[in-house]
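Replying to the earlier thread about multi-chain prediction with a worked example.

Input:
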Amino acid sequence: MRIGVDVGGTTVKIGIVDNYKILDCYSIKTNKDSLFDDIYKSIKEYISKNNINVSGIGFGLPGSVNNNYIKALPNVGLYDIDLKEIHNKYFKDINLYSTNDANCAALGEHLNNPKYHSSYLLTLGTGLGGGYIYNDKLVIGANCCTGEVGHMFIGSEFNFKCTCGLTNCLETIASATGVTRLYKLFSNSKEDITAKEVFDLAKSNDDIALHVIDTVSKALAHALANIQVTCDVDVFYLAGGVSLAGDILLNKVRKYYKEYAHYGVKDTPIEISTLKEKAGMLGSAYLW
Amino acid sequence: MRIGVDVGGTTVKIGIVDNYKILDCYSIKTNKDSLFDDIYKSIKEYISKNNINVSGIGFGLPGSVNNNYIKALPNVGLYDIDLKEIHNKYFKDINLYSTNDANCAALGEHLNNPKYHSSYLLTLGTGLGGGYIYNDKLVIGANCCTGEVGHMFIGSEFNFKCTCGLTNCLETIASATGVTRLYKLFSNSKEDITAKEVFDLAKSNDDIALHVIDTVSKALAHALANIQVTCDVDVFYLAGGVSLAGDILLNKVRKYYKEYAHYGVKDTPIEISTLKEKAGMLGSAYLW
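Result:
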């Protein structure tokens, strides 16, 4: 059996996986002060209680990690953690693997749809991440930056500044943050609103909310068209909070993609993740 | 030994390759009416004259090809050619491989620099093509469109219409055609000028020509930054006529790339192809 751990800002989801299926899963709270000890203690307990044989533990982490050394988990507030050292305290004889959470979600969703051999998944959450699968394997990249498509330049009239320091990144528009930012801009309002509230307004035909969805869909379609002339995958997946908008977003993204994509790649399917929040657990359990 | 054939609009270059080196090469004229018979007859003659053993013949073609069936070579004016059928007339027992010329140039340049294991090459010619190498192998893509980065959307103020039907494609700016188009626009002139003449003007500090190079460099830098968040390669190569501008272009592309690239990939090396017009022969000889 394999264990896949999906670390989030508020909860950690832990899955027990075999034969590309999540057999069991549970979650614990993300407690900054004892995060990885909490995770390892709970896994140790689970293993001894259920008497299972584990071939490895994989982590999907919301931040930058390289060779099991965590540089930063900004949403959790943790920096410079030697995950391998903690792992060895608990499981010296079980292998450890880790990468960022968007990569794990991409791999999980990919493994769940075995008819495709290459895919690109975009996670549209507070930020915007992604993961690229080629020949059924995750592409990590020379700098562990494959999938950082949230920082693709798509040239818009907004010139929104991104948290990364650049301007006009895809993430400034096509994330939950982007959705609320656009709604405030278009409605000339300073009141707080969530992305979900914007989608609900759109579903009741609110003009401003529909304009937001249109703008987000155009940005996403341009980004997918750019990804596709760069690596030409079998299928695209959209995941994360913004993807929960469902058909009202998906239909527009598909429509604009057909308009913007190079003629050779116009027919690439664009789907919403079916595994949703479980993709990360499955993917992290197949990093090896 | 391997034979690599690089088909161009005016000449066909034929290389005899072994151990990742071009041992000998020659060229013949591109004659539309007898193109592939000319090529095969010359190869047959070369082989019997030099008494060599050939394991395969690879073609780099300036157009779209899939499974050795050529759909279109627009610059030559040839369409719908079953290359396999012609090949079998001459060499039933030697394997045949083919892909587009930019893919071959990418593979050739990559093999010539064995310290890198992934790379992206852009050929800046009349049009703009590209090729992506991952794990030392050419990525072809689901629709044979990997590397069609000439049709990446980079959102500019120009709104140039591309030959592909889209607007604001990278190729409308960062190709030889783009260079002359920009020079005419900036100088408000209708006189013909070649890309080489624009570069020569820039080298003698002509303001308009320098502005063209600046514009082309910004577009290229944005495209490279986008490619890099999508697949994060070890190195970029620039090839083709526009790359012959040399340092005056390269230094600006490098400078703007550092400005536009995501912080995790700012240090990716950008180089001008060293194999130049020989890359295609080497690459086509290693399609298998």
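The CA atoms of residues 70 and 81 of chain B lie 5 Å apart.

Feel free to reuse this layout for your own posts.
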